[in-house]
Predict the 3D structure of the following.
Amino acid sequence: MSNETLVQLFRDHPGQFVSGAKMSEALNVSRTAIWKSIKKLEAAGYEFEASTKLGYKLLFEPDKLDSNVLDSALKTSRFGRLVTIAGEVPSTQDLARKAAEDGVSEGMLVIAEQQVSGRGRMGRSWVSPYGKGIWMSMVLRPSVPIHCAPQLTLLAAVALCRSLRRVTRLPIGIKWPNDLLVDGRKISGILLESAAEDERLKYIVAGIGISVNLAEGDYPEEVLGKATSLRVASGRTYDRTELIADFLAEWEQLYDLFLQEGFRSIASLWESLAVSLGKQVKLVTPQGEITGIPESLDESGAIRVRREDGTLVTIFSAEMGEPLDSPVNRA
Ligand code: BTN
């Protein structure tokens, strides 16, 4: 019996429980074999409701990523035109970095169904279960000085925010520098890792994680409350290919604008989508903690923060907390 035959049996009974006895009779295998197949399907992103009396009901079937289907959906000229779609990998960042070192052209994309060592900013790990999200890394080769790298992080956040807002209609905003939030919970993360030579960028590996169809139960307890998915936030599921195609089109367009005209117009777009301006926050910087009100971006992509004594400081790297008067902090 293949897993596909079992899935077909569930598809033939939409929204219904199928008993263990019925499954083993229909497929001519033991109930233990059925149970093992269900566990395998769960590891591949399928969700079931289990009942000791009634059997199993299929609740969620993940979509499949396919390079031909993605290629037909793409509206870009370079981004994602060369793509590797992998099953389980440690981190797409490592595969894309290797490809960049081997000389692949700009826009080469690595997507994985699952990452077992997905990583985030500040050494954190990134929850990347099978078939439920978009875990991908793209190679960029911008001909700009190394100090422009943070601007490309903000650019990716703007592109992702605009695209996800358009497709999902969710009220998504950007928390500096590049977290996308809905209802104060993180829905995606961006990680840019770069290699430089003589003050110029050799390449950038831009890692994008979008929590698309994860259920609450897919998150470890310590992350619940801080993270969410498009599915949890909206109550519906999304086609990952459609999301990737829309985002890559937006990203390529803004990237070309940046290469032609510089950062200013990207910074204005970022400010219009930011949720972290005008509210008092605490920032943990490598030099210590600062409390103040973020006001705007400077031309490098750093944030200008007004302190309580009226002085303006420019912060290049920090972890920004929740607004100090938010419900989370009042509780
Ligand atoms: C963050 O907000 O901390 C950044 C998270 C970045 C996650 C993505 S998922 C694809 C790529 N591979 C990784 O290991 N990380 C990035």
In short: The mean pLDDT is 93. The chain is about 35% helix and 25% strand. The longest strand covers residues 185-197. The CA atoms of residues 48 and 59 lie 5 Å apart.
